[in-house]
Amino acid sequence: MKKLLTSLCALLICSAASAQDNFQMSGTFTDIKNDTLAVEFVKREPTKEIVSFNVPVDNKGEFHFGCQIKNAYKASMTLKSKKVEEFIFFVPEEKAVINGVFSEPYDWKISGSDFYQKLAKAEETRRPLLKEFDQSEAVYQQGLKAGGDEKALKEQREKTNIDINKRMGNLAMDYLRQHPNEEASVIFVGDGAFDDLGEEIKLLSPEVRNGRFKNFLDIRQTLSDRYMQAKNASQKAKETIEEGKPAPDFTLKDLKGNDFTLSSLFHKGKYVIVDFWGSWCTWCIKGFPKMKEYYAKFKDKLEIVGVDCYDKEDKWKEAVRKNGITWQQVRSADGTTEVTFGVKGYPHKVLISPEGKVLKMITGESDDFYNLLDVTLK
Fold this sequence. Notes:
Elements: E1 2-4, H1 8-12, E2 23-29, E3 35-43, E4 49-57, E5 62-67, E6 73-79, E7 84-90, E8 94-100, E9 109-112, H2 114-145, H3 150-178, H4 197-202, H5 206-209, H6 214-232, H7 234-240, E10 251-254, E11 259-261, E12 271-277, H8 282-297, E13 302-308, H9 313-322, E14 328-331, H10 336-340, E15 348-352, E16 358-363, H11 367-377
Parallel strand pairs: 1-4, 2-8, 12-13, 13-14
Antiparallel strand pairs: 2-5, 3-4, 3-6, 6-7, 8-9, 10-11, 10-14, 12-15, 15-16
Helix pairs in contact: 2-3
């Protein structure tokens, strides 16, 4: 899915910023020398495209690049030598200057044009709580290394993170209420509970909502709408799908337009994974290599059914082709199948026993699911 950016951005990344560039970024990372930053963001106009390019970092830790962008994007920067990933907004008609330790983004000194100066002040407000999340994870990892009970440590981490997240949500709502006309306030959208995402967006002024961050906020609004739809249908889903109970059946069209029925795989001695995904879902795409690995590893014990959601048919078929997916693929054209299965996020995987009973449901791309497969299918 990654594409090298062959336009102006790629041509100028190694040179001083050009007058043609409407976004410029430079700075110094004190913990990096003679390295490379892999920069990536998702462009959705006119069609979705993952834009990626490399930025050299010299022997003093300095870097600079410029490019042409139409909208604001949340971009990732990955340090190639250590595979450390951090994020920052790229905003047209602005210049960002960053100094600090790459692996400690909460302590970055951000300056440059007016937007980035305001962004730095907003980040200062969030910094203490973000560091609490890091501390929570550090306590969990230290406990594991000391031989502590993994289940108890996970429960404590979850309890701590829920408390932090609640305070993050309150902080986000307060900041958005006080700074509705400030574009930098956008960084607070999504800091709280998913239930509040739509309300956070509503607090922004029309100028900010429909300005340079419109595409970014449109995506968040879509996520909020889908989440609320799923939440409203959650009671119905609880009645139709539950771990330990028979999996709901469905009949959907496959890549050739033929009907495929889920229950046709039951009682044949194989476990079944139903994987809800979409060509628009970055984490779904990133998870395919691991899925392929496990599909090959347990090919005699496992079948996978990919269910494409919230997608255009041509985009779905193209994504299957590009990613070389060989397992069964069907498409949920009307969205009812994912509601029946209680899907609230993507990717969403459901592990079903050979007899057709739901064993586990996991949302997101993590090692937990594959660890479960190792234990179940060994």
